[in-house]
Amino acid sequence: MSDVEDFILQFSGNQQAILEYFHQLFTNELQLTDKLRYKIPFYYGKSWICYLNPKKGEKIELAFLRGNELSNVQGLLSNKGRKMVSGIEFTSVAEIPTDAINEIIQEAIYLDEIGKV
């Protein structure tokens, strides 16, 4: 079991379900590498693409390190005053807009593949 999987097991209910959902998506389907950094799970290809940040109130934020470069045509990303990072908070797996999230993730992976502009 990886450090990230151990981290996920510390949570319960909706938070654990959201963490597991994205962890499986990133590692199994998209073949991203996971690593616990700053005590939270990060996922990367060539460089760090995104991370999962547990929040108070049973939320999980999916945050993109180059969020300021993403198009955000879906209107879901919020930078919360951060210069580079943008993210989306979820309270349950059921509320994840799968198609829109997949578009954002694919765009983030594309940015990672082409490198810094």
Radius of gyration: 13 Å
Largest sheet, spatial ordering of strands: 1-2-3-4-5
CATH architectural designation: Alpha-Beta Complex
Structural class: alpha+beta
List keywords for this structure.
single chain; 117 residues; alpha+beta; Aspartate Aminotransferase, domain 1; five-stranded antiparallel sheet; 5 strands; globular
How would you explain this protein's 3D organization?
The chain has 117 residues and is of the alpha+beta class. It has a single domain (3-114), classed as Aspartate Aminotransferase, domain 1 (Alpha-Beta Complex), CATH 3.90.1150. Helices cover 35% and strands 25% of the residues. The protein has helices at residues 3-9, 13-29, 98-114, and strands at residues 33-37, 40-44, 48-55, 59-64, 86-90. It has a 5-stranded antiparallel β-sheet with strand order 1-2-3-4-5. Strand 2 and strand 3 form a beta hairpin. Helix 1 (3-9) packs antiparallel against helix 2. The longest helix is centred in the first third of the chain and has 17 residues, at 13-29. The mean pLDDT is 95.
